[in-house]
Amino acid sequence: MQVLERGKYASAMKRACEAVRLGSALCQNVQLQLKQAEAASKSDKSPVTIADYATQAVVAWSLQRGQGGGPLQMVAEEDSEDLRTEEGASMADRITELVNNAVAAVEPGSNLSRQQVLDLIDLGQHQGGPEGSFWVLDPIDGTRGFVGMRQYAVCLGLVDQGQVVLGVLGCPNLPVEPITPEQGEAGAAEHAGEPGYGCMFAAQLHEGSFVGPLQGDAPWQELQLTDHSDFSHIRFMESYEKGHSDHSFTAKLAKALGITKAPLRLDSQAKYGALARGDAAVILRFPNRNYREKIWDHCAGAVIVQEAGGIISDAAGTPLGFGRGRWLDLDKGIVTSTPKAHAALIKAIAQLVQEGHEPA
Ligand SMILES: Nc1ncnc2c1ncn2[C@@H]1O[C@H](COP(=O)(O)O)[C@@H](OP(=O)(O)O)[C@H]1O
Ligand SMILES: [Mg+2]
Ligand SMILES: [Mg+2]
Ligand SMILES: [Mg+2]
User: Fold this and answer.
1) What is the rounded average pLDDT for all residues in the chain?
2) Which NCBIfam families match (predicted)?
3) Hey, how many other C-beta atoms are within 10 angstroms of the C-beta on 145?
């Protein structure tokens, strides 16, 4: 941990790592036991599980405990509205049980009520913006991957005066060795907790980006990307879910640039961690044009990539704005890569669009 205990945000980093570890352990326990009935559908048709809610509560509990008093400022994905209805009551009870089991590992004997757990979940309603500092939490990013036994990540960032200053990713199913396209497609959940699986990424602005084990005490390693733009050797990553990013547009872009390697398709911000350690050199994301990106889907990953020497921007090359509220309003898509490849990608995207090949 020593390498992370430096810089302006050292104590926040320590609290963030503790909270993400606790949340990741909870997720890992739930993933293999998840029953269909414990997943629900949100109003936008995206799935949410008992583990999304429970992890949000546990991370909020851990951060609040660590900061010692004062209100927790947090922008987080989930809210308790559906759990406060009659139909949501049994789900809320399951969540309360999970939260209490996790909390007991840190504070034996503590017992939160259902009401307290729902209130913890609702600590994530901060509106974000350019002033002050606030945590940004995606308790489970890649819920579809989580339900499908693939990749997912517990993602926690800190924004100060509109800038991401810290990010931590817990990736319980990510192999310690570089992940291959075959492993990306295959279920990974059965390996969670085995030696060789489970990574944590952490970065602080101006203090570097690191990878370490989710469990155990193997040392942290600093990450530094090697810059190159030889697309014939480059692999790109994209969402596993076709509905989250236009795979046919990225295939056209890959062809235009001479990328011949098969894409690595992974769920969640595990992609940002994988890029920072060099498993692949590019991440492409082109959601449907009506989709509005949220800050918690990219906040932690962005600083982890940038501190490793990578660049993240929208498809026009403009840096992402994390200080404009809960959403990231951006042009077309998100492009993340090493610097030389980034410049070539932005140019190639503009060229394709000019030729009439708009992303869906
Ligand atoms: N139609 C859509 N287009 C783009 N992104 C979407 C989407 N529906 C959901 N998402 C977002 O995509 C995230 C997962 O990204 P990825 O495809 O990289 O795994 C989801 O995070 P959650 O799983 O936290 O809800 C969700 O915020
Ligand atoms: Mg979600
Ligand atoms: Mg997400
Ligand atoms: Mg989520």
Assistant:
1) 94
2) bisphos_HAL2 (TIGR01330)
3) 26
Q: What is the DSSP letter of 219?
A: P
Which ligand 1 atom is nearest residue 142's CA?
23
Residue 238 CB less than 6 A away from ligand 1: no
Using alpha carbons, select from 330, 343, 331, 241 the residue that is nearest to residue 282: 343
Cα of 293 to ligand 3 centre, how many Å? 9
pLDDT at 2: 63
- Tokens coding 270: 């595990």
pTM score, two decimals? 0.97
Residues with CB under 5 A from ligand 3 (ion): 138, 141, 297
Q: Beta strand pairing status for 264-265 and 236-238?
A: parallel
Interface predicted TM-score (ipTM): 0.99
158-217 pLDDT tens trace: 999 999 999 999 999 999 999 988 887 777 777 877 888 999 999 999 999 999 999 877
CA-to-CA distance for 41 and 313, rounded, in angstroms?
31
Q: State the Cα–Cα distance between residues 357 and 360, nearest whole angstrom.
A: 9
Domains of the chain: 2-223 (3.30.540.10), 231-354 (3.40.190.80)
Nearest by Cα to 299 from 162, 125, 198 = 162
Q: Which residues contact 40 (CB under 8 A, 6 or more apart)?
A: 47, 48, 49, 82, 91
